[in-house]
Amino acid sequence: MKQLLTIFLLTFVPLVASAQEPMDGTDCSNLFFKALLDEDANAVSNLIANDFTVTNYNGQTIDGRALQQAIGQGYIIVDSGMLAGTRTRTYGDVAVVQGFWNVSARIQNNGFNGNVAYTSVCVRSGGKWKVTTVQLTPAQ
User: Looking at the record's lineage, which domain of life comes first (predicted)?
Assistant: First the structure.
């Protein structure tokens, strides 16, 4: 019985532990938006590069630290979000991911509900995929 438990742990625990490790640029981008939906500042932290920036609807740029703080302090609340039309172009260790995000969110109590066109750039460095920048634009 003990040997069976050891085999189980050695087989399945690594799979669970690496489940949130991005497999490619598309997966990295998708996990980033999932972390926003889950309002998980730790997951965002693990997915973004040190020099990460996001450009919002108004053209304002926010760095990764500010984004993590806003999520952690409840300034950004994503009520729902669904990605669609995702298209990825990969150039070696760089992936450009574009698509639409149908989102309902509040940023400092200012609500937004609708489609957002997004572009995210993900880079593989040290064998790990990280999001380096995200551009969000309201779409009709």
Answer: Bacteria
